[in-house]
Write a structure and sequence with these properties.
The structure holds two protein chains of two kinds.
Chain A (H helix, E strand, L loop, with lengths): L1 H5 L9 H4 L1 H33 L30 H34 L4 H15 L3 H14 L22 E2 L3 E4 L1 E4 L3 H29 L6 H18 L4 E4 L2 E2 L4 E2 L2 E4 H27 L3 H9 L4 H31 L11 H13 L2 H30 L5
Antiparallel strand pairs in A: 1-2, 2-7, 3-4, 5-6
Helix pairs in contact in A: 4-5, 4-9, 4-11, 4-12, 5-9, 6-9, 7-8, 9-11, 10-11, 11-13, 12-13
Chain B lengths: L1 H15 L6 H8 L2 E6 L7 E2 L5 E2 L1 H14 L5 E6 L4 H6 L5 E7 L2 H4 L4 E3 L4 E3 L1 E6 L13 E6 L3 H12 L4 E6 L2 H10 L4 E5 H9 L7 E3 L7 E8 L3 H20 L6 H6 L5 H7 L5 H4 L6 H9 L2 H8 L29
Parallel strand pairs in B: 1-4, 1-5, 9-10, 9-11
Antiparallel strand pairs in B: 2-3, 5-13, 6-13, 7-13, 8-11, 8-12
Helix pairs in contact in B: 3-9, 3-13, 9-13
The chains are: A mainly alpha, B alpha/beta.
Chain lengths: ~400, ~350
């Protein structure tokens, strides 16, 4: 008290910015910010000057010009008469396709391998160790090329299926696995096809409802209801009955061997298969380690307590361990999903036409708009990554421990 | 740590700022010519077993280095893919691009480059296995086609199939090597690129006779070296070095007799002007008068370069065709040295 009274009230002196620890941090931050801004301005001006020296401007008008090139996998109608913007969109959808299917498969591989690596069965746990270490420690692009080479070298050519004495035959007579891709029957919807789809979607909803009921019932009473068999029945029976009742409104267009390739059906390109498999196996190996860490983070006492209550090992895992482990697993899992999405830009190694190959490759090359193309590309990946993060963070918040 | 990162960024930005007009001064100061070439097309530009670059385009780079730096070995070959070539040239990583690139309107104007001439008149063709039994490209309805991305051939291919109302499935590949692998593995039915490239590819196969080049040539592909737009002196040096090689063939100057012919003025004034024994054409470009002599000493005249790398005596076995001199029914025509 006396000290405060003794020290005379003094105003702010400039020297305090340097010698007073209350203000020094502000000074340092202000200087750092100014330097950073100066650097950014210098870099941007440098870029603008250089572009000007080359006689180039920044212009996104090329997106409206005719693309003129073809893309071998398009989820939306596309022809070489359409614009570069459309081609970029086709590429974006291809990226999203392989990234989303990759995330699903990687999660399945990762959870299976992570759980099995903790198995008491020596052989199973060792095999999973080999899988995880093998995939984690070899560059992804090598896996992509290796899987692609296997698919290309080990399978017959389409023309081996044709002719009078074909040397290769189709799987079940309808699926052709070739060195260019897998040709599968394409569905053709007849009269009442919509009703069929509606029934199918309704049964999916019914399954979800049934599982929820079963879970509630178990949480409330401890009794379990049969889930797997009932779900399977709901999945198949109503759709099958409708299908027959409507007079089979769904037929299939089976691919046929033509002179060069198969005609008809749906083609799953080998480049897609290779990229998808390699991405999901590679990321799955990382997810396996995350899952293992999450499980090991749960105290052994939880397992023992569950056993003491009479729960079987599988139920212990799904009802006690995994729900708690999820809290540890989800945050690092987000970055694995982001990695997978961004790694899908390695697609060009096997000629899969993702956005990096269409917008970032051919379009840039044909139009000479490197900077604009790369900016758009970066923007696309940024938006996709942020959306994935946001969605996963929402989920994370739902399962996080609720502190009340 | 932070400081070093910042300094590094500044240094990088400074480098990017160093691209400027006087390429000749840069090359002389550096002592080597940075020449952008193919990643490896036999006969046009590929390293041999000892790692020495050799080929039709490579010889042009050596001639230019001999003219500018007096040393045909003073070339730093920078392999570029179809996708990286133009960025490499625009950024100043290379001084000149001699990589069988097609001269097109938009590349000459919008991409801000200047083609300095045509060193090979080419056209796009198709390579198919003989066993496929295809005799014309118009029979290729439904075929799978291997194609290098980022090339004019990609666009020609789309146009050709469109105008003939047939369909195809493209298999995009990044380099010529990759295309060969895919083609040999049967991942595509046919491979399409410039006909000269197809001949080079076929010659490197184990059984070249099992493959045929289809008769259709579906496009004009005038291939030539190119430089950045805006440096006219460097452009002139590149253009007239190419013309010097062509004129030398026309005038009967070869790598064998050039030293002798340049020793004293000959009867033919045009030879004298080319070889610097009369007038001072070299000085007009900023070089000395012996520039063309050195270029011809290094690689020989255009005909010699052609025959040594891709001519009928080589495994590639290309005929002169359109690339014969204008006096022999071809299109090779050097502007007058006057």
């Amino acid at each position: 008290m006396s000290i405060a009274e003794n020290s005379p009230p003094r105003g702010f002196r400039p020297g305090q910015l340097l010698y007073d620890s209350r203000y020094r941090s502000v000074t340092i931050q202000a200087i750092a910010l100014a330097l950073l801004a100066a650097l950014l301005i210098y870099l941007i001006r440098n870029l603008v000057d250089n572009l000007h020296a080359l006689g180039k401007d920044i212009n996104f008008g090329f997106l409206d010009n005719r693309a003129g090139y073809d893309i071998n996998q398009a989820l939306i109608p596309y022809s070489n008469d359409m614009s570069h913007g459309r081609a970029a969109l086709v590429g974006m959808l291809n990226t999203l396709l392989v990234a989303s299917l990759g995330c699903v498969a990687a999660t399945i591989f990762g959870v299976l391998a992570g759980v099995l690596r903790l198995s008491k069965n020596w052989l199973v746990s060792r095999i999973m160790t080999v899988y995880v270490e093998g995939f984690r420690n070899v560059p992804l692009v090598l896996w992509i090329i290796l899987i692609y080479a296997l698919l290309t070298e080990a399978t017959p050519q389409p023309r081996d299926f044709a002719g009078d004495n074909p040397t290769a035959s189709m799987l079940f007579g309808v699926i052709a696995i070739t060195n260019r891709g897998t040709y599968i029957p394409a569905p053709i919807w007849g009269e009442g096809g919509r009703l069929l789809v509606l029934v199918f979607v309704l049964s999916l909803i019914a399954i979800w409802v049934w599982r929820r009921v079963a879970r509630r019932r178990q949480a409330a009473t401890g009794r379990t209801l049969p889930v797997v068999w009932v779900s399977l029945a709901i999945l198949i029976l109503p759709t099958l009955i409708t299908f027959l009742a409507l007079g089979r409104p769904l037929t299939f267009d089976v691919p046929e061997a033509a002179r060069f390739n198969f005609r008809g059906g749906v083609t799953v390109l080998n480049s897609f298969m290779a990229l998808w498999l390699a991405l999901s196996l590679y990321t799955g190996a990382f997810i396996a380690e995350i899952v293992r860490a999450g499980i090991l983070a749960i105290s052994k006492g939880q397992t023992e307590a569950a056993y003491a209550l009479g729960l079987r090992p599988r139920r212990t895992m799904s009802l006690v361990i995994l729900p708690q482990a999820m809290r540890v697993i989800i945050p690092p899992l987000i970055s694995q999903y982001l990695n997978l999405t961004k790694n899908s830009s390695l697609a060009i190694a096997v000629g899969y036409m993702d956005v990096r190959a269409t917008l970032g490759g051919i379009t840039i090359n044909q139009t000479g708009r490197e900077l604009e193309g790369m900016l758009l590309l970066a923007g696309f990946y940024l938006v996709v990554s942020l959306v994935i993060s946001a969605a996963m963070n929402l989920y994370n918040r739902r399962i996080a421990i609720k502190e009340r | 740590m932070k400081t070093s990162v910042m300094l590094g960024t500044l240094a990088l930005a400074g480098l990017a700022g160093a691209v400027q007009a006087a390429t000749l001064d840069d090359v002389k100061a550096r002592g080597t010519l940075n020449c952008g070439v193919n990643t490896g097309v036999t006969g046009f530009g590929a390293p041999d077993a000892n790692g020495n670059w050799a080929g039709f385009d490579v010889d042009y780079c050596r001639a230019l280095a001999a003219a500018v730096l007096s040393d045909p070995q003073a070339v730093n070959f920078v392999p570029t893919t179809a996708q990286t070539r133009f960025t490499a040239l625009a950024s100043g990583e290379i001084d000149i691009l001699a990589r069988n690139s097609t001269w097109t309107f938009s590349r000459d104007t919008d991409l801000k480059f200047d083609f300095i001439g045509v060193n090979y008149y080419d056209g796009q063709g198709f390579l198919a296995p003989r066993a496929l039994g295809v005799t014309s490209a118009k029979e290729l309805d439904g075929a799978t086609v291997c194609i290098q991305t980022g090339t004019t051939t990609e666009l020609n291919l789309a146009d050709f199939f469109r105008t003939n109302n047939i369909t195809y499935e493209p298999v995009p590949v990044a380099t010529d090597d990759e295309a060969q692998q895919q083609y040999l593995a049967g991942a595509c039915d046919v491979y399409t690129t410039d006909a000269s490239g197809l001949a080079a590819v076929r010659s490197s196969f184990e059984n070249p006779d099992d493959h045929v080049i289809l008769p259709e040539i579906i496009s004009k592909e005038p291939l030539g070296p190119l430089v950045r737009h805006g440096d006219n002196q460097w452009e002139d040096i590149g253009r007239w070095t190419l013309y010097a090689l062509i004129a030398a063939e026309e005038l009967g100057v070869t790598s064998a007799n050039v030293t002798e012919m340049a020793a004293a003025p000959t009867e033919n004034p045009e030879i004298n002007r080319l070889l610097g024994t009369e007038g001072d054409l070299g000085a007009m470009t900023g070089l000395d008068n012996q520039w063309a002599v050195r270029a011809i000493q290094a690689v020989g005249n255009y005909g010699e370069v052609f025959e040594r790398n891709i001519g009928s005596e080589t495994p590639i076995g290309l005929a002169r065709g359109l690339n014969a001199l204008w006096t022999q029914g071809g299109l090779m025509y050097a502007m007058p040295f006057r």
